[in-house]
From TrEMBL:
InterPro entries: Bact_response_regulator, CheY-like_superfamily, Sig_transdc_resp-reg_receiver
Entries under Gene3D superfamilies matching the protein: 3.40.50.2300
Name of the protein described by the UniProt record: CheY-like chemotaxis protein
PROSITE patterns linked to this entry: RESPONSE_REGULATORY
Amino acid sequence: MVKKVLVMDDSKVSRLFVVNYWRETHPDWQFIEAETGEKAVSLAEQHQFHAIILDYNMPDINGLQVAELVKVKQPGCFIALLTANIQRYIQDDAEQAQLYYYRKPITPDLIVQIIQDTGGYYDAVQ
């Protein structure tokens, strides 16, 4: 079964960085992109994801709101909030929602960390 990753960010460049860096180590995975929160929620209704990467600042609904809606449809899925917004309350809210929290900029090392955390997450829940 092919593992799928949903990458939600209103920045095409950010989505490309995440997908391209991740694909370097996992070329057999499928990546689906969403440029809005509403599209991410819709895609979560249509696909089963192994990992969901959400930007916080979006043009419609923010990443935390998307995570809340998606968790109902994808219980047990690894969900990460990846954001340039460094306000402490956002990190606190992400942790309270049991999301993994990462700060931009997107780098190969950051994507490696997210991939490792994804693996560790599934090792812990099995």
